[in-house]
Amino acid sequence: MSHQLTAGIFKRLFETDELDDTLLESRPTVQFLSYKKVATGGTTNNVDRYRIIVSDGEQFLQAMLSTQLNYLIEENHIAKHTIAIVDKFACNMVQGKRLLIVLGLTVLEKTADKVGEPTALQAPPSARSGAESASPAPEASASAISAPTPAPAPAPAPAPAPAHAPTPQQSVQRQGSRGSRGSAIYPIESLSPYMNNWTIKALVTQKSGIRKWSNDRGEGKLFSVVFVDDTGEIKATAFNQAADDLHARLQEGKVYLVSKGRVGLAKKKFNNVVNEYELTLERTTEVEECRDVVNVPTVKYNFVDIAGLQNVEKDAICDIIAVIKETGPMGEITTKSSNRTITKRELTLVDRSGYSVRLTLWGAQAEQWNAGDEHPVVAFKGVKVGDFQGRSLSMSMSSSMQLNPDIPDAHLLRGWYDGGGAEQSYQSHANNSGSGGSGLAFKREEVLPVQEVKEQGFGEPDKGEIFSSRATIMHVRPENLTYPACPTCHKKVIEAHDGWRCEKCNMSHEKPQYRYIITAAVADWSGQAWFQGFNEMGQVIFGMSGDELMEIKERSDTEMQNVLSRVIGSTYNFVCRAKQDNYNDNVRTRYGVSRIEPPNYAEEGNYIANLLRSEWAQ
Amino acid sequence: MSEHATPRINSARLTDYIGRSVRLTCKALAVNGDTAKVQASDGGEIIARLLPDVDITSQYIEIIGTVQDPSTIKMQACIDLGDNLDMKLVNDVVEFSHDPRFSNMFLH
User: Fold this and answer.
1) Residues of A with CB below 8 A from B96's CB?
2) ipTM of the assembly?
3) What residues does each domain of chain B span?
4) Low complexity bias: where (chain A) (predicted)?
5) Out of A602, A612, A617, whose CB is closest to B86?
6) A355: which residues sit within 8 A by CB, 6+ positions away?
7) pLDDT tens-place string over residues A111-130
8) Which domains are delineated in chain A?
9) What is the distance, to the nearest Å, from the Cα of residue A42 to the centroid of all Cα atoms in its chain?
10) pLDDT in tens, A62-96
11) For the domain B2-99, what is the CATH code?
12) Chain B closest CA to A611's CA: distance in Å?
């Protein structure tokens, strides 16, 4: 016996704007055309759900079976073409479509013939192939039912063209042409996480290669660029899929309109671009190349001149523009930490301040440097300042350089250099302040009181730690103040029948040069320690050469005593190396003086005055 | 004890110490017989009444004396400070010694 289906009920259901009770309680007779198990969204939800195609004889549509009724399918009460009365159902709006949820049904006939030729309700005209064409909706609705929040999100780009999966490229481009035209350009300076409808027009000044990483959380790849406009700069990173897409599209030196990126706090560990925020470029980010040449942003520099480098702290980042006076040869260095060899090349930079400084290029930049014999003007951005030999510069991961840039500073330098600057002689920071030597800087800010020096217990033997200190000479050991030395190589010479013999130089000298070896007790308010120094230290303390001191010693005991006692109470700034020595089973820390200079009271006083004015003293 | 303390001052603070003994670190600008025109660490000019047989030989001196009026000091003693002195630093010292944060370190 075949039952009559309630023909047209679906049409009515979906055409009314309001569901009234009469419809809901109408208990239509329907036929199930097919059913399919769907995985529910939500990882914690293990319940199966069944999607059914329900027909009223004229049209069919998607419906979901309420989970309480799952047993009907699982225990085979419902099969293909089963006719049943829907006793209770609900009708939800999902993405503009009505979705039926079957809450209660009574099976009339399990097996039957298909009734009528039902057509899909609201199917797209192109697809009459049954369930598949309407699939985006139920997918969305499936997740809509199972997830408590009715988020239609899962069906983004696929919607317009379900037959072929759109590539992310396409969707980005399509949205790009629709979205960004006509929206205002925002300055990079104004970007913040609090506004999300922005578009920037920016130049790519740096682009990194794709970098892969692998850690215990998994693998991934990324690349980053730096966007610059007239108001500032910002770093942008793309990960994984987005990285693949955008890496080919973003080129250094071109201008792009960018929108719908995620603005977040800058991770200072990886990012030293001047901005508290950074961008993450995602698959939804829109990037459009900007063809108009007007208003192209340029790289912003904040140059320091070489003389001024003295005032820039070690490890700080700065910009500098200078003429390359000398190009060093390419060399290789092996890093102690990872045993990798890296190529490097040193350039000597000069500018109108009369100073010169060395800058190191690494890796590919070192290899590709080719200025020939020329002396180009180069603008460097984001170079790291070091204190090797006073002051030195080094290119880092995020540094960039421009050869002979078309900016006024560059033209000025060119004119100056060609007009005679080339002949000038330059000062380097290594010559500054006193007995330079190995270029160790006296670090005023890091002065350690003597007691703390001893408490530091300076670590491993064989590894020297450098520290700065200010202390007063309390006592100088008068024994062995000097040793006879070879005037050429300074090694100790032995008195022989034909003079003073130097083994190293294989020469004999008539008279040795007496050089100092000083062992002095120094102290400050916190404690006392023994420092050791050589000729330099003696020269500074005594104010005379070792030879002269020896003469006085020969000449007069009392005068010698005077000289020795004069030294007591004089204060100096020291740069020392602490090293542990193994000495007959005793481990002793020896403090060698690398640099000694009398304090410049005005400088020290000003330093303290500034400290008192700083926040620290409030 | 506080009457014997001689705080270091500059020209602006003279008015606070009228009748009292103070120290004035200054630069000698001109000497006219028994008075001298000196410049204090804050740039202000002051007249110093010199002691009878004292000669000012160096550029920078410290005058210990009593304040007679907001622009005059009567010398009791004088210290030679040489020809090289960072007056800005001196002024910093004067101002810090009057700063309430550090007043317990100085005798005023």
Assistant:
1) 609, 612
2) 0.82
3) 2-99
4) 123-148, 166-183
5) A602
6) A305, A306, A307, A309, A426, A427, A428, A429
7) 778 877 877 765 433 333 33
8) 9-133 (2.40.50.140), 188-290 (2.40.50.140), 306-421 (2.40.50.140), 430-481+517-608 (2.40.50.140)
9) 35
10) 888 887 788 888 888 888 788 888 888 887 766 66
11) 2.40.50.140
12) 12
